[in-house]
Amino acid sequence: MRLMRRKRTVGLLGGSFNPAHDGHLHISREALKRLDLDEIWWLVSPQNPLKERAGMAPLAERVADARAKCAGNRRIRVTAIETALKTAYTAQTLERLKRRYPAIRFVWLMGSDNLGQIPRWKDWHKIFISTPIAVFTRPTYDSRALVGKAAHRFRRGRLPQTAIRRLSRQSTPVWAFLRFRRHSASATEIRARSGDATRNDN
Fold it and tell me: DSSP label at 131?
């Protein structure tokens, strides 16, 4: 009898990574542990449409910095694949990633700050409809995000805490809010310490 191979499950953490910091690592480690993921891909965005270009480090520099930050962790992969996919919006990126990697099950990872602002994203509802979403706690954003437009619209798809580990295997739309010890690191503070507070966050 031929055994069916389990689909590889990959979490996607998108952002400017300007620069990558310990908060990104903290979220990634929690996701690997709590969501039963095989890998996490850091999708370093060429240019976030909602952010100014001024102060954004070159893509190659941000990719190199991210790879240095997660060096030694074989389950975190850093990529600027959106350049090859020719996508500028998350909904497009997810659609083309699934087409390119049909044998992979993807989970979109984001902080509660992004849950609050996701209605500003292009075709944001398609993200919920197409891909399981894990939302991570972030200081000061949780309360507003969990009563915001996106959380309300897809409230029936929210998983209870006891089912979070099965998130990737659920039918969409489905999302979960993960509570864990918060990490205080932020790109803004790092740039301020280095004397370059004009660069965009994440």
Answer: S
H-only helix segments in 120-177: 124-130, 142-145, 149-153
Write down the CATH superfamily of domain 8-193.
HUPs (3.40.50.620)
Is the distance from CB of 13 to CB of 40 less than 8 angstroms?
A: yes
The whole-angstrom separation of Cα 108 and Cα 127 is 8
pTM of the full structure:
0.86
Tokens of 173: 């739309």
Question: In the chain, how long is the greatest CA-to-CA distance?
Answer: 63
Strand partners, 77: 41
Distance CA 94, CA 106 (A): 8
Per residue in 62-97, pLDDT (tens digit) is 999 999 999 889 999 999 999 999 999 999 999 999
Give the up-direction half-sphere exposure of residue 135: CA atoms within 13 A in the CB hemisphere. 28
Under a CB-based contact definition with an 8 Å cutoff, are residues 178 and 164 in contact?
A: yes
Q: In whole angstroms, what is the distance from residue 191 CA to residue 199 CA?
A: 7
Q: What is the pLDDT of residues 148-186, one digit of tens each?
A: 999 999 999 999 999 999 999 999 999 999 988 765 554
Number of other CB atoms surrounding residue 58 within 10 Å: 9
The DSSP call for residue 44 is: E
